Amino acid sequence: MIEVTGLSKRYGPKLAVDDLTFQVRPGIVTGFLGPNGAGKSTTMRMMLDLDRPTAGAVRIDGRRYTDLKDPLTHVGALLDAKALHGGRSAYHHLLCLAQSNGIPASRVGEVLDTVGLTAVAKKRSKGFSLGMGQRLGIAGALLGDPQILMFDEPVNGLDPEGIHWIRNLMKSLASQGRTVFVSSHLMSEMALTADHLVVIGQGRLLADTSMADFIRTNSRSYVRLRSPQQERLRDVLHQAGITAVTAGNGTLEVDGAGSEQLGELAARHQLVLHELSPQQASLEEAFMQLTAGSVEYHAHTEPASPASGPGWGAPRTDSGASEDRGSTGGGN
């Protein structure tokens, strides 16, 4: 289990992470979401003691990461797939990690096979594509057979087969009782992978809840009805105390009543229905609804004219700051 308590990080005047408290429990995949600049990467770095918190603490099974003996056997992490020596082969990169953490050399071949890199094990990693680098980073995370795994944007650069593979891998690891914590901007993929969500915005905790509750709480659910007897259907609904709103394509939208209730009501009045479909927002829609006030960088649909700004299509932000946050130390 990962326990985050009162975690804060300040870079000069910039508060990148603001008093975060949450737990990442074993047996489920926990998704870590937030807009660009929300503080996700900074938080994950503090979990691994790569950055020192301004306040608060992180405990890995009750201990700080730096107090763990042979840490790769406790926590496996992929934060930056490019963080490796390009002159080393995939095999020797993993062998160095294994030797520094008391892991048998035989484990190197096992994880290379797991991630599908056996055929290029002796090739230098500097020639790897982004997707191959991601697979090597995942192999490094799996190397110590840890009970806790952390992945920051693990599907970057992967093809559809690779995305399907990493999704099933994370779900399989969680089903074994391991703690799996994953950050991603791909909402459609997160919706298929995560069981629980931790959502932050501008460094503050916005939600810590199950996937189903998150979508239900932050979106509108309704039932869509379409009938060739629309006016009569509307009258029947009105008589039953149900409000229907006219939508496009000759449909009605009903809030506060289930599809079963509406179908039975139509059947009792011998009304023909061409459509009776419950509608639930996607994770992306619910996420956009919750984080609308926490987005730091806003794109604009109308490009600036060459005469009105520093350059054609130059990025704009509400604060006028550059999108390169390296000077403040902030991250995703």
Automatic annotation (TrEMBL):
Q: Which SUPFAM superfamilies match?
A: P-loop containing nucleoside triphosphate hydrolases
InterPro entries assigned to the protein according to its UniProt record, in alphabetical order: AAA+_ATPase, ABC_transporter-like_ATP-bd, P-loop_NTPase
Annotated segments matching region Disordered: 300-332
Give this protein's Gene Ontology molecular function annotations.
ATP binding
Q: Is-annotated flag, keyword Transport?
A: yes
Q: Which UniProt keywords apply?
A: ATP-binding, Nucleotide-binding, Transport
UniProt similarity note: Belongs to the ABC transporter superfamily.
Protein name, entry field? ATP-binding cassette domain-containing protein
> Organism classification, top ranks?
Bacteria, Bacillati, Actinomycetota, Actinomycetes, Kitasatosporales
